From TrEMBL:
Residue span, Calcineurin-like phosphoesterase domain: 50-330
Lineage: superkingdom: Eukaryota
A Pfam family that the UniProt record links to this protein: Metallophos
Highest classification ranks of the organism: Eukaryota, Fungi, Dikarya, Basidiomycota, Agaricomycotina
GO molecular function, one term: hydrolase activity, acting on ester bonds
GO CC annotation terms, alphabetical: cytoplasm
SUPFAM superfamilies per the UniProt record, alphabetical: Metallo-dependent phosphatases
Protein name in the entry: Metallo-dependent phosphatase-like protein
């Protein structure tokens, strides 16, 4: 597995490691690339990089009824329309006789942020084939992407491992992988990172996308038992060791930006919600984070606080973190600054017709646009709905959360030719 291969390389690099911030020789920097056989992901020539996040697709509900497959068809329609409308100009260079590792992708990147499948309704013999349906719109237009997984992806007939292996086998541009052996705990293999470079020839990335596995759901098999619903404590040590190796290979972390994804939100989101200000923190806020399982480490009341070790490590070791982004709670799409760690937390947008919903919640995605590879520059983000309406346009920067924004919602769609511009003003 790529994850195990990467772990071996990193273990080799830690022996005789130079002092902090010393730049490693070129050969060892190259070995730090976890995707030697995939196209290198870069910013576009104009200095931008765009991500589109699909969350909580929930394919596979009630396949024995008419409405189940209809929901999957509707979710596929959402994906195709959004990808078609939001796809920016990009450079896609194939070397006619070059190996795939020399290809360049300066285009948008998609993220599938958990609960790809409603595993409770799947059958063992065909559960993973739902992955084929999910990734087909991405494969069709050759968009590189990564996935995280949620509690509904761990059930008696499906697991995070099953979904990752299937995705890797049917999606050539999937950057999803499993972390090293021993990292992630039971049911949580999907802890990894993806480097984004300024240009094809740069030795060090300017942006790291981090993916964490919040587990939850049930173990596979006939004697299925409940799994922990928080990022395992082993991930904290892994974050520390990975960031140390990055610093020693590429220089100080302050030179790189970071963005993190985890399906189930950390417990802190529950404490942040009562202070949401719709003017300062725009976006749907219809899902109260009160019930069991609404945030990490709450399905079992005795587990309260067990996500804190991950939360502390995330904020201590990952520098220039633009935001941590979660799904799971379908009725929320806000961003807010957490004052103690001074980090921004955001919700995705419920994308799939599967899973629960509410009146006028709608279906859509969260877009993120990096307007510069400079890690100190803000990141624009907004919610785009299925029919083209956009809302909650903000900039994730050092000022966000300390001022108010006047948010203007406009309609955009293919008949308008281009995505409309959302104006925002800090007051």
């Amino acid at each position: 597995m790529v994850g195990i291969f990467m772990h071996t390389l990193l273990e080799q690099l830690t022996h005789g490691m130079p002092t902090q911030h010393t730049i490693l020789p070129l050969d060892k920097q190259h070995n730090l690339d976890p995707y030697p056989l995939k196209p290198r992901l870069t910013f576009k020539a104009n200095g931008t990089f765009k991500l589109t996040i699909f969350s909580d697709l929930h394919f596979g509900e009630n396949p024995w009824d008419v409405w189940g497959p209809e929901q999957d068809a509707n979710s596929t329609r959402v994906m195709k329309r959004v990808l078609g409308d939001e796809r920016p100009d990009y450079v896609y260079v194939y070397g006619a006789i070059s190996p795939i590792s020399d290809m360049l992708f300066s285009r948008e990147f998609s993220v599938l942020n958990g609960d790809l499948i409603t595993g409770e309704n799947t059958f063992k013999e065909n559960a993973t084939t739902l992955i084929d349906q999910i990734v087909k719109p991405l494969n069709d237009i050759e968009v590189p992407f990564s996935s995280s997984h949620g509690n509904h992806d761990n059930q008696a007939n499906i697991s995070h491992v099953d979904e990752i292996l299937r995705e890797q086998s049917v999606a050539p541009l999937s950057y999803t992988r499993m972390g090293p052996k021993g990292v992630g705990g039971e049911g949580g293999p999907g802890n990894y990172w993806v480097p984004i470079y300024r240009t094809k020839t740069d030795l060090a990335p300017v942006l790291i996308l981090w993916f964490f596995d919040s587990r939850g759901g049930f173990s596979p098999g006939a004697n299925s038992t409940r799994l922990p619903d928080w990022v395992d404590v082993s991930v904290a040590d892994w974050i520390e060791s990975e960031t140390k190796i990055m610093d020693e290979a590429w220089g100080p972390a302050e030179k790189r930006g970071a963005l993190a994804f985890v399906h189930i939100p950390p417990f802190i989101a529950q404490e942040l919600q009562p202070g949401i200000d719709s003017k300062k923190d725009p976006g749907l806020n219809a899902d109260l984070l009160e019930g069991l399982g609404s945030v990490q480490a709450t399905t079992d009341p005795t587990s309260l606080g067990k996500d804190a070790i991950f939360w502390d490590a995330l904020n201590k070791y990952i520098k220039n973190l633009h935001a941590l982004i979660s799904g799971h709670d379908h009725g929320n799409e806000w961003c807010v600054r957490e004052p103690i760690k001074d980090v921004i937390f955001c919700f995705d947008k419920h994308s799939g017709y599967g899973g629960y919903t509410g009146d006028d919640w709608g279906y859509g995605v969260r877009n993120l646009l990096f307007t510069s590879p400079d890690p100190n520059k803000g990141v624009e983000t907004w919610i785009r709905l299925e029919e083209g309406e956009t809302r909650a346009h903000i900039t994730l920067n050092r000022q966000y959360g300390y001022g108010h924004y006047l948010v203007e919602t406009k309609f955009s769609g293919p008949e308008m030719g281009r995505k409309s511009i959302i104006h925002f003003y800090s007051t």
